[in-house]
Amino acid sequence: MIIQNNPFSNTLHSLDLIAERQKALSCNLANMDTPNYRRKDISFAQYLGAASGSLETALSMKMGPSPVTLQASDEKVNPATELSEMQKNAIMFTVASRRMTSLITEMKTVINMGAS
What we know:
The protein is mostly helical.
């Protein structure tokens, strides 16, 4: 779970999760004609939203992020759906990478201000 006070760590974990989802989606496309292949995906809600109480928040701060689990479903791979999900994932990557760039720029500003 991503419940930490460090914005760098939160953004880094988000980027890792986005990368893992991209792997799952591309694997679905690569195996869409494979007999008995089961579609896989990563649930962001499960990963990010599971800690709702104070106990869960305290535990997640001490234990760090939970492992990413692929969820297999019985649905057949639909190329249009997979491509659409890949586009959504690309937008999430853009937002997360811009957030990381912003954090780095803020840190550089603080460092430069302190050096003056």
